[in-house]
Every structure is written in C-alpha cells, then in structure tokens.
Write a structure and sequence with these properties.
Helix content: 10-25%
Strand content: 15-25%
CATH topology: Rossmann fold
Number of strands: 10
Radius of gyration: 20 Å
Number of domains: 1
Order of helices and strands: EEHHEHEEHHEHEEEHEH
Number of helices: 8
Shape: globular
CATH architecture: 3-Layer(aba) Sandwich
Length: 246
C-alpha cells in the first residue's frame, strides 16, 4: 500500500492586493426606454435573483418591467451572492434554516401551505426557492455607499426595494438626489425624525426599532413619490407563528 501526504500551502499576502466590499449590478437598457430606470434592491438572505425570476422559472419583476420599456438595474449588495468578496471578518456556518424561510415568507407554516397561496407547491420549485438564499457576510457599512456610487453613475432613477433592503432604500433616497421615487415591497424597517421615534416593538424575529435621522434628511422623503406594498396572510391580531408574527 502506498501512502502520500497533502500539504496545504499558507496564503502569502505580502505585496498582494484585495478588492472587496463592492456591489454587483446586472443591467439591461431597452431601446426607447422610459426616462427613469428601475434599481432593484434585495432583502436579507437574498440576492438580485429574486427580481429576475421566480422559483418555478417564470419571469421576475425586472424582466416583466423591461418588456414594458423600463431599464433594469438589479443590485447584489456587498457581501452577498456575486458580490461576496468582503472585508468583514466573519464566520459562515452551514445552518439548517429552510423551514424558517418558508414561514417568514408566509408561504405557509411548515410543512403546510397557506390556503390559496400562489407559490408553486411542487418539490422542484420549493427546492429552487431554498437554494436562492445566500449567506450574508457583510457588515452592511457599504450598502448605502454602493447605492450612492450607482446613483452618481446612472443619474436619476426609481428605487424598488424588498424587505431588509427597504432601510437601505430609505437611507439612499435621503442622501442621493438622483432617487426620484421609491417602491417598497414589505420594507423591513423605517426611518423617523430625531426626537419623534416610536417605541420599539418586540418580536420573535428580533422586533423592530425606528431609525432616527436628522429632520433635514427625513424631509427628502416627503418630496418624492413613495408607494409601499404588503402581501397576503398578514394577521390582524398577535400570533405565535413565526411567519405571521414577523
């Protein structure tokens, strides 16, 4: 019997460079496009793919709106998905959390689907949904600067945000005059003028805190159109189910 050993070389960093904390932006511009492009910002645990397709392969928002003549800029925020090269010092551990995502996306209460839910119930689509989740290895310090850099590059635009990306969207809209409107799908947080922040709301998934901002920044949001969308299966009374309560 022959034996051999494998020696792992240590990384030598002297004299080398490291580019990190960038965003990844996938964009398409149709002929005769509308004046304002749409900039799509994903939420926690996700990446730009959530705007480009559905788990069962149908067109996503970015593609649908592209066909209607709207330019599409799909952002992957720093430390997520294709922008995973980060300077944050973190440890990524494999965590079995798929039932968590099933519940808080209000697909149902695992393993049961909500009655009438439009999410496809075949095993392939469900597996694809779970596989779209991506680790968050960012410290989030570059999220708003990344959208600021994009703003300066493309000019006036409309932000389309989802969930935790909502906070990033509010902050970007307050700091970048190029943001001319915000479309927020179930934003995961809200900003308030300093001194006028409501009390914290506790919850099973971490609760909610209002984010204080200077009044002059908050007023920027009052000068642009904003629309918020919330989906189905949100209870009107307290619930012990994770997805409902979230």
């Amino acid at each position: 019997m022959k034996r051999f050993s494998v020696r792992t070389a240590e990384q030598e960093e002297t004299g080398q460079s490291y580019r990190a904390d960038h965003a990844f932006v996938d964009f398409q511009i149709p002929a005769n496009a509308h004046p304002l492009p749409l900039v799509y910002v994903h939420g926690y645990g996700g990446s730009g793919i959530c705007w480009q397709m559905t788990p069962d392969g149908r067109d996503g928002f970015a593609t649908l709106m592209l066909r209607r003549g709207w330019s599409s800029y799909v952002v992957v925020l720093p430390g997520r998905g294709r922008a995973g090269r980060t300077s944050a010092d973190t440890t990524v551990k494999p965590v079995a959390d798929e039932m968590f995502w099933f519940d808080i996306w209000r697909i149902g209460i695992w393993p049961n689907y909500n009655e009438g839910v439009q999410f496809p119930k075949d095993s392939v689509s469900l597996s694809q949904f779970f596989q779209e989740m991506t680790p968050d290895i960012s410290d989030h310090a570059q999220d708003v600067p990344a959208l600021g850099a994009l703003s300066k590059r493309i000019g006036n635009h409309i932000l389309v945000t989802h969930s935790a990306g909502g906070v990033t969207g509010w902050l970007s809209a307050m700091q970048n005059v190029e943001v001319k409107a915000v479309v927020a799908y179930e934003p995961g947080g809200f900003v308030f003028p300093e001194g006028d922040v409501p009390e914290r709301i506790d919850g099973l998934t971490g609760g909610a805190d209002g984010i204080p901002v200077p009044m002059n920044q908050f007023k920027q949001l009052t000068e642009i159109p904003i629309v918020l969308y919330f989906g189905d299966y949100i209870p009107e009374t307290p619930s012990e189910n994770l997805g409902d309560e979230n």
